[in-house]
């Protein structure tokens, strides 16, 4: 059962910026008018700006910038992604919560967001530094009707949606380093993607896509080893950025690309990915398990594999590994 407070926020939010009378609110929520007034005072303490006019009622003028289940949904322009939001101020990792929710109730489109992760994780159990209030730390639960071997395409799709978001909102020119990093021409990384999968042999049960984007960090917010490789939107532009709006823009961008991908296949993603791909046409170093070798990076194959020309001149497809230069 939803709390009275949340129902109140939703009623006011649905009404956009129009007034809604205290009488109507008290009837809909089944509470007295003075209880409505007390709730309004509590909301104001949380940063909601509310206008109250006699004979007309109440209306929201603005929402607090801080992230919450309600503020993420206010003005969100998606059809299915983020229609359910789980928010934590502090958690170990949003991936862990998302796995638990997906196991219990599936929840295609549910997102989990945290202000801070104390054990944020990258690939291969590496650490992902996720300080309080400075970034977008989010996991999306998806149930794509796909065989498991196509799941890596979703990482590439996410990278495109994230890159488009950064480019559109900040005017920066981000690049994608195969398969999961977003960086700039200075080779500093501002975002990473972690795709985790629960699957049967030929069917995905669910995918959790974790996205970490550094937004308002300063260089000395990170330990030294991370400082060497990391950057944030604030460092690149010299400006603070509103996290809530970035989350909303990203969700819209992801949803429309995902819908297009489901209708038309990977080609729509591939073309966009290649327009942002880092070092296409250059010599790169490929690391797979304990083997390192050089090759020319050609681009993506039609299925999303990394297409390279090895030193013997043969073209190969790679499905895993890491690249460097
Ligand atoms: C990634 O791993 O880039 C995937 C990161 C995914 C993070 C999200 S946040 C929401 C969700 N919940 C989680 O717990 N995780 C996901 P990988 O390619 O393995 O990169 C990890 C490496 O990046 C580390 O070994 C560090 O060197 C570096 N690193 C750590 N924190 C960083 C940061 N905030 N910014 C840039 N680089 C960082």
Describe the structure.
With 325 residues, the chain is α+β, with helices and mostly antiparallel strands. The protein has 3 domains: 59 residues, Orthogonal Bundle (Arc Repressor Mutant, subunit A), CATH 1.10.10; 208 residues, BirA Bifunctional Protein, domain 2 (2-Layer Sandwich), CATH 3.30.930.10; 42 residues, SH3 type barrels, CATH 2.30.30.100. The protein is built from 10 helices and 14 strands. Strands 3-4-5-9-8-7-6 form a 7-stranded mixed β-sheet, with helices on both faces. Strands 13-12-11-10-14 form a 5-stranded antiparallel β-sheet. Helix 2 crosses helix 3 and helix 6 packs across helix 10. The longest helix has 22 residues. The protein is elongated and about 80 Å long. The structure holds biotinyl-5-AMP. The site of biotinyl-5-AMP has 29 residues, from helix 5, strand 5, strand 8 and strand 9. Biotinyl-5-AMP binds next to helix 5, strand 5, strand 8 and strand 9. This is Bifunctional ligase/repressor BirA. One of its GO terms (biological process) is protein lipoylation.
